[in-house]
Amino acid sequence: MRCSARRRSSTSCSRSARTTSPAGSSKPCPSTSRRSSPPRRHIRSEGGTAMSTPTLKDEIIEKHGQNALDLVLTVYLNFYYSELEIIDLCARWIPRREDLREKSYLLHHASDEVVHARLFKEGVERLGLVWDEFDHDKYRIDDIDQRFRRLFESDDEIEVLIGLNLYAEGVLAMEELHQLGRNKPEYFPEFARIEREERRHMGFGLTVAKRLLDEDEDTRRRGIEYCKWYSEHLENYLGGELSQTISWAIGQGFVEADYIPRTRARFDETMSKLGLVEV
C-alpha cells in the first residue's frame, strides 16, 4: 500500500509516512495490541436505560476481526503522514522551478494534499476514534519514511518525479486507492475522489519528467537507473513486507486476488509512458 525510519510521538504532524497495508501511496501484518479509544455514544432506551451505539470501529471488528481495524488504521495513517511529506517536498521544489506553469503544478499538488490529509484524518475519526488519543507509531511503515527521506535529500529532479509522482503516487497509491475504494467504500468513502486527484498529480509528473528526459541524454540514463531501482523495490515490497497482509486482505475482500499482478502491470504501464521500460 502506500509508499513512503524514524519514530515520532503519536500526535506528531511533522514530515513522514509502521505495520504494512496492502498496497499506496501504498503495510506489514496488522498489530493486535489494544489502544485507547473514546467511549461509545450512548442513547436512552424507552425505559430510560443508557444504551451504547456501535461505532464503525465496532462494526469492522465484529465483521472482520481486530486485524481489519488495524489494517484500516494502517492505511489511513500512512496516507496521512505521506501527504505531509509530499507537501514539504513540493515546497522544496517550488523555488527551483523557473517555468510558471511547472511552478503551478507544485502549488496545485501541495494544495490537493492538504485536503487529502484532512480527509484521511476524518476517515480515522469516522471510525469512532479520537485522533490524538491512540498510538500512531505502531501503524507507521518504516519503508515509506525511508523512501521519502531519500527523495527529500535528493537534488535530482528526475529522481523526485519518478519516486514521487510516478511510483509512490502513480503506482502504489493509485492501486491501493482504487481497490480499497471500490471494494470497501463503507470504510474508505473518499478514496474514489482522492484517486481521481492523484491521477492529476501523476500527470504533472509525467509532463515535467518528459521534458527533462528529452532535453538531456544523461538525465535519461539516470532515469532508467532510478526506474530499475524502483522495479526492484516493488518486488521486495510486495513479495516481502506486504505479502502476508495482502493475502489476508484478499481473503477478507478488501482487495482483489490479482492485486499484486495489477500493481506490477501499473508500474510497467506508468514507466513506459516515459520510455523507461518496454511493455
Automatic annotation (TrEMBL):
<feature type="compositionally biased region" description="Low complexity">
    <location>
        <begin position="10"/>
        <end position="36"/>
    </location>
</feature>
<dbReference type="InterPro" id="IPR009078">
    <property type="entry name" value="Ferritin-like_SF"/>
</dbReference>
<feature type="region of interest" description="Disordered">
    <location>
        <begin position="1"/>
        <end position="54"/>
    </location>
</feature>
<protein>
    <recommendedName>
        <fullName>Phenylacetic acid degradation protein</fullName>
    </recommendedName>
</protein>
<dbReference type="InterPro" id="IPR012348">
    <property type="entry name" value="RNR-like"/>
</dbReference>
<dbReference type="GO" id="GO:0016491">
    <property type="term" value="F:oxidoreductase activity"/>
</dbReference>
